[in-house]
Give the backbone structure.
Amino acid sequence: MATERNAPERRARRKAEANAAVPQPPWSLVRNPLPPLELLDEEGMTRIENTAFRVLEELGLEFMSEEACRILEANGAKVDHATGLVKMDRALVKTMIAKAPQEFKMYARNPERNLVVGGNYINFGPVGGTPNASDLERGRRPGSFRDQVELIKLHQSLNTLHTSGGTIVAAQDLPVPTRHLDQHRAQILYSDRVWGGSAIGRDRIKDALELARIARGVSLEDIQREPSISTIINTNSPRRVDKELLSGLMEMAENGQVVCVTPFTLAGAMSPITIAGALALQSAEALGVLAFVQMVRPGCPMIFGGFTSNVDMKTGAPAFGTPEYVRATIIGGQIARRYKLPYRASNVNSSNAVDAQATYESAMSLWACIMSHGNWIHHATGWLEGGLVASYEKVVIDAEMIETMKGWMTPLDVSDEALAFDAIAEVPPGGHYFGSSHTMSRFEHAFHRPMVSDIRPFQTWVEGGSPDTTQRAHLMWKRLLENYQQPPIDPARAEEMEAYIARRRSEIGERGLA
Amino acid sequence: MATERNAPERRARRKAEANAAVPQPPWSLVRNPLPPLELLDEEGMTRIENTAFRVLEELGLEFMSEEACRILEANGAKVDHATGLVKMDRALVKTMIAKAPQEFKMYARNPERNLVVGGNYINFGPVGGTPNASDLERGRRPGSFRDQVELIKLHQSLNTLHTSGGTIVAAQDLPVPTRHLDQHRAQILYSDRVWGGSAIGRDRIKDALELARIARGVSLEDIQREPSISTIINTNSPRRVDKELLSGLMEMAENGQVVCVTPFTLAGAMSPITIAGALALQSAEALGVLAFVQMVRPGCPMIFGGFTSNVDMKTGAPAFGTPEYVRATIIGGQIARRYKLPYRASNVNSSNAVDAQATYESAMSLWACIMSHGNWIHHATGWLEGGLVASYEKVVIDAEMIETMKGWMTPLDVSDEALAFDAIAEVPPGGHYFGSSHTMSRFEHAFHRPMVSDIRPFQTWVEGGSPDTTQRAHLMWKRLLENYQQPPIDPARAEEMEAYIARRRSEIGERGLA
């Protein structure tokens, strides 16, 4: 009877539970309490460093920008203006890099989402720059603005992420010259976290900076002191830096924003086939360009980026999560620490599907990120297919892996209550702890609660339709998006943002981008 | 024309290549060059240790064997003969455990497969004791002798494994009393590596020992000095040791064979719900039973086993590869090192399918095994579904993961040739290294060659039928089995083995097992 009468109520309650926000650990800054792993000894480190400096001193880097070359020359570099080749001696590089902060803050439009970069802080950010998106239902497709918005919202719904990323996926359905305006509007409206812009020319960075300033409701001077946006500068390895990227870099640095220089040194393709050689070239390019950042603005916050991996020598396709990637990532961290710079690493894989390979490669990458004391974990969630795809299901699965990592790194409670001598005394030999008072008072929060891991007994799982992890992740991102909550924004700031974007849209339509 | 004429030859060559043994790194002893990870500080370690000793001193362990109790009493333990509860003070435990070797050798029938256990050696062994087997084609099924033989052969075909394991999967189609004879015959004939027996009563161990002795062609005295077999003793946590296992343990220890004591301390079920409490109980049980091993035979080689994880508090199902498992495994290693004992850990997961969860949980477990300096990695390949299933596909995928781990741990070559300054000088800015002489002379062996990882471009992969990792692993284990080579055995030893087995089969038929 009671059953009958309460049925609608129970149904409603069940529905509410199904729609409830997914239980997650709260958003927090994350610190790595472990000592960093040192894979290479001092002699090996010196040999790599020395080779890197020989590259800078004897061979040089090509800076494809007259403006950059003038700055380099004024600061003591030797510039061949005919070729754009710039040689820097090691003393100059070291002096410049020593001007950078070891640790700095980043300022989000929601001050509760401000970050610390450097030291033993780990910041996780979404996959970036993929041309395609994919999910189980809609398949693999060229990225669209809808994908971009959904992925910003999905990441905002996950407490795991510290930033809302940059161009998670390219909005290929929007016109190129104004695409960044739509992207930044979405980043600001749908997320309250720190975000990144694309340093392709000065104008895009000017727009990003102005929008970040408006969103925070601060002055230009404020934001120059309190960096709010970041960008990734990939060198055109080997030994070349693109003109447009240098323009964007200079705009970022002049305004004190965060520049992460990441050489694209895939061993056997854009760098020597040996990991030692690839790391030497990576170091040369990163240190050379980072020294240039300090010439533009001494003290500018910056990040040493590592992205060295191997390629498949048959196809030239990049491989990730391999032994070579793990080594390069861990030793890359050692190099960054040598120069007291925050370190960027990535959670990457080369699988074509969200399957066993995707996660074993990702897990290898993620452990390398953590053991190398990565401070800025780019592509932490959603990367698939060597970076050609942002996968919705992979976003959720990566968040699960990251929460597992955060969980085991949390210092263990060894209080008397946790040591549980009394509970041990209470249960007889061969008994069990299911009903003990120690268990009962703690069981709800004792263990990490997974989002997609399924440990039901086999038969129960079969009766539930044998959903594999990727299918469960599919349901989970849908549930997260259904429960997405847009973070509040000051209406005056939103209005100012819309007005700026409208004005810029019309300017760019008339004059194009610089 | 040439094409036409050579077609049959090319077809034959292609077939030969397809059937060629799978390229793998050679079998070798593996050493861990890294410092072990210390997750808990000295104060925390002391608190866990102190709680463990209080359990042994104040509460005691139940040894369900009068014979064991007499030995314990004779060595200074306090025995309550009515309850079987045995209390040991910490000085006694420490004195006994100090008699064990820190490092020892194990002797295979092929001396080239002898092992070193302890120090920084890592030995990988297959999954053990699963009731079921599964593969993509035949599905999940109760384990059979055919499965057992195939899995012994599959592991023998993989250079990754150091041992051929114990009861990989139960041969449920064979009569229980003589099943171990068939298993050991298969272990000896189809593999030339160290193997393990089940310590259920004295007779099974006597048979295992005699068969190992015959296979090696040595005397009983030889094999007592040169241990050849291992066994896992799981306590019936909390605080109980089974009579049959104690009989098997005593038979093993009296003969100087390798005893690995592994408490079955799943937090929230067989041990306190807190990881600190579960580790305290694990330590108490392991140290208490290991002290007993030294009372039976001082100097007996033995291994401190860790298997602490959490359970799902809703279903009671064990969870693996979780933050709790990683913590317990790493701190378990710290405890083992405190007593200078070799450490056993496991590559485990709780997934019902060989999918993304299976490998992210396994990868978490495997990293914990390595970072904790596990010396004896049990269940290293093939474990699925919380240990209820030995999966053929998982065997191959786990071997891939282990080879990745071995790869990145290999010390990096930082010779001048590897640092590649000349190669860097040879390639102009923006060029590539594909055709450089440095690349050409090294590309075949520069990188780890995966068995199942597939990094073809997406479109090529789709044209190839979009095989996921598990499907590729399916093809790979078939290929490995097709190319399986039975290791040679001295015919006289094989004959002696067959005669022994025939005699024992008839004796057990008449008198049963003791």
Remarks:
- Confidence is low (pLDDT under 50) at residues 1-10, 12-19 of chain A.
- Chain A touches chain B through 129 residues (CB under 8 Å).
- The first strand of chain A starts at residue 30 and ends at 31.
- The radius of gyration of chain A is 25 Å.
